[in-house]
Amino acid sequence: MKNVKRLIVTFLAGALVFSFTACSTQNNAQTGDSTDNINLTISAAASLKNAMEELTPMYEEASKGQTLTFNYGGSGDLQKQIENGAPVDVFISAAQKQMDALEQEGLLADGTREDLLKNNLVLIAPKGNAEITAIEDLGTDKAARVALGEPSAVPAGQYAEEALTSLNLLDSVKAKAVYGKDVTQVLTYVENGEVDAGLVYETDAKSVPDKVTIVSKVPESSYRTVVYPMAVLKGSTQQDAAKNFESFLKSDEAKAVFKKYGFESL
C-alpha cells in the first residue's frame, strides 16, 4: 500500500510540474517575455532602407540574441499588408495617413505610436542634365517625362501632388508623369536617365550624389511636413522586444545615423 501511495504522489508531482512548465511556455509566447531567438519583423518605408541597414548590426549587437527582418515598400502597400494579417512587430511609415488608418482600426498597441523623423521633398534630375533648373520647368517642354511616387500608395507621391497642386503645376505634370511603386523606384528612374526629373525625399537624393543632381528643395509651404511615425502592432507576440527597438531608434546613437543620411530626428 505504501508503494502505491508513493507512486501516486510521484505521478501527481510530475503532472503538476508538466502543467506549470506548459503554462509558463504558453504565457511567454503570448507576452513575448522570453528573450531567446527573438526575430522582429519591421515593415518600413522604402526611404529608410539605407539608414536601417547601418542601424541593424548596431541593434543586434546591443540586444544580444535578437535579430531584425525588414520589409521595405511604399507605406500604403505596407499598411494593406498589415490589414490583411501580415505578421509585423513594428511599422514605420513615411506619412501619418497610413498610421492613422491602422490606429482607427485598432491595430496598434496602446501607447507605442511616436513620431520618429522628418524629411524634405526635393526636385532632382539625372547627373549632367542642365535643362531643369527650377520646379516650374516641370510644366514646360524642358521636361518630357517626370517621375513621381504612385499617390495612392506612396507618401512621396502624395506630398508631390500636394506641392504640384499648390504651385499650379499638377495638370501639366500629370500628362507626362511616370509613376513608381515606391520612392526608391522613382529615384531609379532618374538615376538611369529614363526621365528628365523627379520628386523624391532629400535623403534618397543624397544617397546617390554621383548619379543625380538636387536641383532645388520643393517649397515647404506647398506640402505638409514629411513626418515618419512608428508604432508596435497589437498583434505582435514580442511586444517587449518591439518596444525596446522603438527606444533604440530614439537613442542618441541611432539619431546620429539618421542625421548622417539626412533625416531630422523628432
TrEMBL record:
Which Pfam family, any one of them, does this sequence belong to?
Answer: SBP_bac_11
Similarity annotation: Belongs to the bacterial solute-binding protein ModA family.
Which organism is this entry from?
A: Eubacterium callanderi
**What name has this protein been given in UniProt?**
Molybdate ABC transporter substrate-binding protein
Which PROSITE patterns did the record assign? Answer: PROKAR_LIPOPROTEIN (PS51257)
Gene3D superfamilies tied to this protein: Periplasmic binding protein-like II (3.40.190.10)
Q: Where does molybdate bind?
A: S47, S75, A156, V183, Y201
Keywords assigned:
Metal-binding, Molybdenum, Signal
Tell me which InterPro entries the record gives: ModA, ModA/WtpA, YvgL-like_PBP2
* Annotated signal sequence range: 1-29
Q: Name one GO molecular function term.
A: molybdate ion binding
What PANTHER family does this protein map onto? MOLYBDATE-BINDING PERIPLASMIC PROTEIN, SULFATE-BINDING PROTEIN
Q: CDD domains from the entry?
A: PBP2_YvgL_like
Task: State the superkingdom.
Answer: Bacteria
GO terms (BP aspect): molybdate ion transport
| Hydrolase among keywords | no
